[in-house]
Structures are given as C-alpha cells and as structure tokens.
Amino acid sequence: MSKNLIKAATDVREKAYAPYSKFHVGAAIRTPSGAIYVGCNVENAAYPEGTCAEAGAIAAMCAAGEYEILEVAVIAGGNRPVPPCGGCRQKLSEFANGDVAVTMVAAEGGQDVTTVASLLPGAFSLAYLEAGITVSDS
Ligand code: THU
User: Contact 56/28 with Cβ under 8 angstroms?
Assistant: First the structure.
C-alpha cells in the first residue's frame, strides 16, 4: 500500500460533511494512470441522500475518464479499521478486480488490508446482465 494513498484519504477526510453522524470518512483510489482520486462522505438533511466517501472518489475517477481501480484506502474515526459499507463494496467491485487491495485505516491508529473479493464474494456484475439479456429476432 502506498503511503501516498493513505495520506490522500487522510487529507480528504478533513473535508467530510457529516453534521448528522459526526462520522468523518475519507477514501482514495489509485488507477492504472497513477492518478489518485479522493472523496469524503457528504450527508444530507434527507438522510438517504447522503453519499459515502468511496462513492465520491469513484465519481471523481469517472469524471476524469478513468474506469479501473488498482488500489483503495479508506480512513474513518475510531480505533478499529472501518470496512466499506455494503453499497460501497458493490460500487468498488464494478471497477476493481477481486484481488485489488483495500486498506482500512483507523484514524486513532491501526490498519487492516483486505481485498475487494473478500469484502464481496460472488459480486453481482455485468457478466450476469449480459448472460440474461436475450435479443429477439422481431
Ligand atoms: N460511510 C462512508 O463514507 N463509507 C463507508 O463505507 C461507511 C459509511 C459514511 C456514510 C455516513 O455519512 C457515515 O459514514 C455514517 O454511516
């Protein structure tokens, strides 16, 4: 895991907008170009409209025209590394191979490394959609 990626996630965590949960999260992803894209959680008075840090980083990556994730770092508060939520596991798996490393950092110290496949075994993917789409002749 590159220290740069953890530093980028740590820095963007400062920008989190989390007045409701007070739980600040930062995420950083590295792509094949070497670029690092970052995101923080952005909450909303209409609670379900809030977005996770990982989603923000993925959106920034796509906005830059990149669609492949090689490495992920996520940092959140507390003394235990926080794993990405279920929705973010699916979002990450859209752009990352199963063996992509996800480093989870606890702001108060400690970190764990896992993989996208460990976080989401048997992920739903484009392959299932393609296999299920039938084109009629008429
Ligand atoms: N959160 C993230 O940003 N990423 C995750 O993977 C877990 C949860 C945010 C969403 C919400 O703003 C706050 O943490 C509390 O759930």
Answer: no
Determine which residue's CA is closest to atom 2 belonging to ligand 1: 52
Q: Check 14, 43, 49, 54 and give the catalytic one.
A: 54
Comparing CA positions, the residue from 21, 80, 79, 31 lying closest to residue 53 is: 21
Tokens (6 digits) for 92: 């990450």
- Amino acid letter for position 30: R
DSSP-derived pairing of the beta strands 69-76 and 96-106: parallel
pLDDT digits (tens, 9 = 90+) for 75-101: 999 999 999 999 999 999 999 999 999
Q: Give the rounded distance of the alpha carbon of 126 from its chain centre.
A: 18
Mutation to probe ligand 1, out of 12, 15, 41, 49 (largest number of atoms < 8 A from CB): 41
Distance separating alpha carbons of residues 90 and 99, to the nearest angstrom: 14
Instruction: Report yes or no on whether pTM surpasses 0.90.
Output: yes
Domains of the chain, start order:
3-137 (3.40.140.10)
